[in-house]
Design goal:
Radius of gyration: 25 Å
Protein name: Protein Hikeshi
Largest sheet: 5 strands, antiparallel
GO cellular component, one term: nucleus
Family: Belongs to the OPI10 family.
Distance between the termini: 40 Å
Keywords: Cytoplasm, Nucleus, Protein transport, Transport
Pfam families: Hikeshi-like_C, Hikeshi-like_N
Number of domains: 2
Shape: elongated
Number of strands: 7
Strand content: 25-35%
Length: 187
């Protein structure tokens, strides 16, 4: 955890990321001790040195008082193109093994108009889809483990039986709908 940024301007801060080539994700969070001023938030940028040693800045996203933390995937960004950034006039020292995370304090309206590099987002849909798929598999395997043939069934008026093909049909329908739209269940 790095809690002491280097202030490079009144509204700009950087954190060094030594050995950044071995880092896959970066978590940016506010400590809760000093909030952003009213109507302000922080754009989060990733900066790494390209092959010639020049700084390449990419917008990852933002943090605000209402969204005080974010996780960004940086492993795929190290060969991408740079984007427009507010750190341009600053000549920040770059070494081949050190990258930086830059925070630029800006108006919330400005943050809403910015477009982060798409591959930096850690999608909650992907983890949700993965969880749902594993849950479905677990449920189907669990329910199937109780399957018996009609010959094996012993009459018991207090128990209800669901045919295994009904569970399989539900399982296949749910998987199909999840593949088409991972958030279908919200409608």
């Amino acid at each position: 955890v790095q809690a002491a940024p280097q202030q490079v301007a009144e509204d700009k801060f950087v954190f060094d990321l030594p050995d950044y080539e071995n880092i896959n994700h970066v978590v940016v969070f506010m400590l809760g001790t000093v909030p952003f001023p009213e109507g302000m938030g922080g754009s989060v940028y990733f900066c790494y040195p390209d092959q010639s040693g020049m700084a390449v800045w990419q917008l990852l996203g933002f943090v605000t008082n209402e969204k005080p933390s974010a996780i960004f995937k940086i492993s795929g960004l190290k060969s991408g193109k740079g984007s427009q950034h507010p750190f341009g006039a600053m000549n920040l020292p770059q070494t081949p093994t050190v990258a930086q995370i830059g925070i630029s304090v800006e108006l919330l309206e400005s943050l809403a108009q910015q477009t982060p590099v798409a591959s930096a987002a850690v999608s909650s849909v992907d983890s949700f889809t993965e969880f749902t798929q594993k849950m479905l598999d677990n449920f189907y395997n669990f329910a199937s483990s109780f399957a018996v043939t009609q010959a094996q069934m012993t009459p018991n008026p207090s128990e209800a039986f669901i045919p295994a093909n009904v569970v399989l049909k539900w399982y296949e329908n749910f998987q199909r709908r999840l593949t088409q739209n991972p958030l279908f269940w919200k409608t």
